[in-house]
Each structure stands twice: as C-alpha cells, then as structure tokens.
Design a protein that fits this description.
171 residues; alpha/beta; 4 helices; 21% helix
C-alpha cells in the first residue's frame, strides 16, 4: 500500500505475509563513539555550509549523555569508529534487524560505502544472519525503514537515499 508520494519520495508499509504473531525481540542498541565525527563532505542538504563546523567536544558530550540514557533501557553494543568514516556514528543507517537477521545497507553515496565492510564484520562477529541487497539498489537501513511497535509492519521510505526497489527485498 503506497501511503505518501511527493517530490520523488515515498513511504510504504510492508506487511509480512504470515499471520503468526511475532513476539518483539529483546531490545538492544548499536552505537559508535563519535571519535572521528565531522562534516567532511556534502551528501545531503543538512551538511551544506557545515564543512568542519561540528564541535568534537560537544559531539562527544552529547553522545555520552545519549549512551547513558539508552543504557538505562537495555544493552548497548558498540562498534569501533574507523578513521576517515565520520558518519559511522549514524549506526541506524547500517541496516535493519529483526530476530537476528540483518538486511545490510547499500549506501547510495560513495563517501559512506566503506562503512558497509565494518558493519558487515560487526554483524557477522556478533552472530547475526546477514542478507545483502543487490549492489545497484541503495538502501540506508533504519534511517529509511522502521518496524511498528509490535513488529508486524515495516514502514519503509524511499527517495534521496533509498531506492523503492529495495522494498521487494525487505518484504
């Protein structure tokens, strides 16, 4: 069911074809410390006119407070940041997970593609089953797709980062 389509962007619900109730998995979060966070290139409108304008000390303090808050809700897993990959802090973009299966992101912009290897290694080392999309279909994980509160519906967007063709694979 197509819900919204405007200016080349869309949001679509992807409902699982089975009717068996699925218990939500125990929540945990993946975070990456902002050790190398910076705006080093422009790949979206929010980065425009912000090259190297980020405050590393402020980013670290904000991340620390966020980490502490999330840790009160459940386990927080960490991935080590990699030099030259300032956007690794946006771990939601790494893929989308359900019941131990991860559909890994295929980043649209070349500046983020090197992250794919680091996230793949992390998911593999932590026992996840990994599903890879075809290399020509961009998809940016939970940055553009989220499950409903009971995990019965996947809400997936498309537009400037995620190709609508990814929805067929997510379904």
């Amino acid at each position: 069911m197509l819900l919204v389509e405007a200016a080349g962007m869309c949001t679509q619900s992807i409902v699982e074809p089975r009717l068996t109730p699925i218990a939500p998995a125990k929540s945990s979060w993946l975070m990456c410390p902002p050790e190398f966070y910076d705006v080093q290139y422009v790949i979206n409108p929010w980065m425009e006119n912000n090259l190297h304008a980020a405050s590393r000390s402020r980013a670290i303090e904000q991340w620390r407070r966020l980490h502490e808050a999330i840790a009160t809700l459940g386990p927080v897993e960490l991935i080590h940041p990699a030099l030259g990959l300032p956007d690794m802090v946006f771990t939601a973009n790494a893929g989308i997970e359900r019941n131990g299966v991860v559909v890994r992101s295929r980043f649209l912009h070349v500046e983020r593609r090197k992250e794919e290897t680091f996230f793949r290694d992390w998911f593999q080392q932590n026992g996840y089953t990994i599903i890879d999309l075809p290399p020509n279909i961009p998809f940016e994980g939970e940055g553009d797709a989220l499950f409903s509160h009971d995990a019965s519906v996947l809400w997936a967007g498309c537009g400037m980062r995620t190709d609508q063709r990814s929805h067929a694979f997510l379904a």
